[in-house]
Amino acid sequence: MNFEIIPLQELDAAALAHLAALHSAVMPTLLADLGSSVVARYYEIAQKEASVVGLCLVADSGELLGLALGSPDPAALNAKLRQPLTWFAAQMLRLALTHPRVLFQLAQSVLSASNVNILQPGQLELTYIGVAGSAQGQGLGKSLLAAFLAAARTAGYQSVVLSVETDNPSALALYTRLGFSIAKTFREGQYHRHRMEFSLSQAKI
Ligand SMILES: CC(C)(COP(=O)(O)OP(=O)(O)OC[C@H]1O[C@@H](n2cnc3c(N)ncnc32)[C@H](O)[C@@H]1OP(=O)(O)O)[C@@H](O)C(=O)NCCC(=O)NCCS
User: Which atom of ligand 1 lies nearest, measured to the CA of 136?
Assistant: First the structure.
């Protein structure tokens, strides 16, 4: 399949909406559970944040098939979702009325955040990576992650870290294949996770 990998900053508003839809379809994360308008806002914020490394994989047909996003301070990026306050309050009210369980999970995730996730200067956390279901298993994840590591190095970061659930074999295979190693295995709330690292001073990406 022919494709190109472009920076998140190049997406226009319509493409950003597709990116949010891709995120929600591919990654059953807490962010996705907060609803499509919150996911779209997250990427809008990320697009403007200079420290973020964000890449999108686009097929020749124009279809958006993959995304990878990393930040040196994911918590600060998440915190920006609380602004504007009236918009945030409306989202929380909507969740309280329609998906109260998600609000509970949100509180739980804030309270159970592990110290393992604290980043050191020079570290970039790969927060999200995903490939559209129909395009998985064809090497796109590998191309996307390799491009992400190269972009992180160009941006001046020294290493990339991530957390992955221990029961996510495709993600674990991808990270291991590209040369990440497990630094720690830990429990965070109901999740059992590996913390993985990749040093960008490694010769081969
Ligand atoms: C993880 C993900 C991005 C991988 O993308 P992909 O395009 O399917 O991966 P690739 O085709 O490039 O495969 C990469 C390597 O992993 C291996 N692999 C992929 N899926 C696998 C699986 N289920 N079991 C074992 N190995 C697997 C491939 O064989 C390949 O290794 P190889 O080169 O030695 O053959 C994709 O599965 C995905 O989007 N998953 C849902 C979102 C997710 O879990 N994201 C990560 C956590 S946020």
Answer: 8
* DSSP symbol at 167: T
CA distance 98 to 87: 16
The amino acid at 142 = K
Q: What is the distance between the alpha carbons of residues 106 and 33, in angstroms, rounded to a whole number?
A: 10
CATH number for the region 3-199 comes to 3.40.630.30
Our answer on whether the CB atom of 173 is closer than 6 Å to any ligand 1 atom is: yes
Distance 138 CA to ligand 1 centre (A): 9
Domain positions in the chain are 3-199
Q: Do 68 and 142 form a contact (C-beta atoms < 8 A)? A: no
- 112-163 pLDDT, tens per residue? 766 778 899 999 999 999 999 999 999 999 999 999 999 999 999 999 999 9
- Inter-residue contact 181 to 162 (CB < 8 Å): no
Is the previous residue joined to 74 through a cis bond, with omega within 30 degrees of 0? no
Flag whether the pTM goes above 0.90: yes
Closest CA to 48 of 7, 9, 88: 9
Q: Is the CB of 70 under 6 A from ligand 1?
A: no
